[in-house]
Each structure stands twice: as C-alpha cells, then as structure tokens.
Amino acid sequence: MRPWPRCRRRARRGCCWSRSAAWWWCAGAPPRGLDRPGGRRSVRGMPPDTAPRPSLTKLFVTYLRIGLIGFGGVNAWARRVIVEEERWLSEQDYAEVLGLAQALPGPNALNVAIQLGERWHGARGALLASLGLFGGPMAVLVLMAWAHDRWGELPLVKAVLAGTAAAAAGMVIGTALKMAQNLRPAPPILAVGLAALVGAALLRLPLPVIVLGLAPFGIAAAWWTGRQPAKPGR
C-alpha cells in the first residue's frame, strides 16, 4: 500500500525510518521499535547489537573530554557522558562494565575505557580510548605539579585543593546514589552492595578481600533474583 501524499512528505522530512513506514506512522500506529518521533529507539530498550556505535574519532574526542573535565576522579563524569549525554550504554550495561572494571587490577576508568574501546573498534579502539583518557590529563598534571611546587604552600592554594577534594568526594557519592536509584537493585543485591560499603568505609578492608569475599554472595544474589518473576512496571 502506497502512503498518502501528506505521509510521503512527512517521510521525506525524516519523521519515519522510510517511506514505506510513513503511512503506518501517520495513521497512529508507529513501526515496531519506534518510541518517539524521529524513528529512534530508546537506549534502555535497545539490544546490544543495535546500540549506538561511535566512530574512532568520536571515541577518542569523548574520552579526551572526560579526562580533561574529570577533576577528582573521572568515573562520575564518564558515567554522565557515556550514559546520559552520548547514550552509548544503558544504565544497566554501564553498571556491568564498571563492576567488571572494579574487579580487575588497574584504574577503574582505564579498565572501562579499554572494555568499551575494544567492544566497538577492537584493539585500535582500546588504544585510542586509553590515550584520550590519559593524554590530556597528563599534560595538565605536569603543569599543575610545576605550579604546586612553586605556590603549593600558599593558604589560598591549600583552600582550593581542600575544596576540590570535598567536591570530588561528593560527586562520587552522588553518582553512586543516582545509579542505585536508576537500577533499583533487588534486596539481595542491595545487601551485598551495603556489605561492600561497610567493608570499605568502616572496616577499611583491602579491595581484593572485599571482592573475593563477596563475589560468591553477589553471584548467588544475582542468580536468585533472576529466577524470580518480574514485577509489573520494572
């Protein structure tokens, strides 16, 4: 069936994926998978193989920006850029990648960059994401180290550094709360997370001890949660 002329005009303006879908869209029944005008899927419901795939240049520039704006730690900024701004990953996907990065040796942000770069562009993507993440900050760090050697003992400089550290801690806490609110973990998984928080913040246990000690409980909690019937609205 050929679409009406008005629908063909709307298709040419880009309100549908193709002209063949224009009639159904204008009739009030959008094609399957379309959840808003413009023919784009939401990232939350998008399968991994159809998620946005950035180019090598976009990947490098984005991680360069993350590294330059991530004062006090880049994890909070990386999540905001990748999940909320660029929408390359859903909240659940990013939480899984970050969880694996925390279980591996090395900086968490670097592990995430390597995973995502390799996922989208193989070894070249992993290398460019890593260079973008650390190239800019390394240049800034050299300049700041030189400036700190010259003026680090000034009261104003000490006050600025103390305020920056407090703001960085607040960003990390805010990011953790926002991720927990969006993910809405089941009570068993939340209990494992709280146990990890107690072990790190109160008991001051080493990270390998926390990861190895809670890994069996986390796996069991995820397995038990996956066997439960999904609740309506989740």
How would you describe this structure to a colleague?
By secondary structure, the chain is mainly alpha-helical. Among the domains are: 48-156, no CATH class; 185-226. The chain is 69% helix and 0% strand. The protein has nine helices and no strands. Helix 3 (56-69) crosses helix 6 (108-151) and helix 8 runs antiparallel to helix 9 (207-227). The model is unreliable at 1-49 (pLDDT under 50). Pfam families: Chromate_transp. One of its GO terms (cellular component) is plasma membrane. The chain crosses the membrane at residues 126-147, 159-177, 186-203, 209-226. It comes from Falsiroseomonas bella. One of its GO terms (molecular function) is chromate transmembrane transporter activity.
What is the topology?
Layout: H1 5-12, H2 22-26, H3 56-69, H4 75-85, H5 91-103, H6 108-151, H7 155-183, H8 187-202, H9 207-227
Subcellular location: Cell membrane
Keywords: Cell membrane, Membrane, Transmembrane, Transmembrane helix
GO molecular function: chromate transmembrane transporter activity
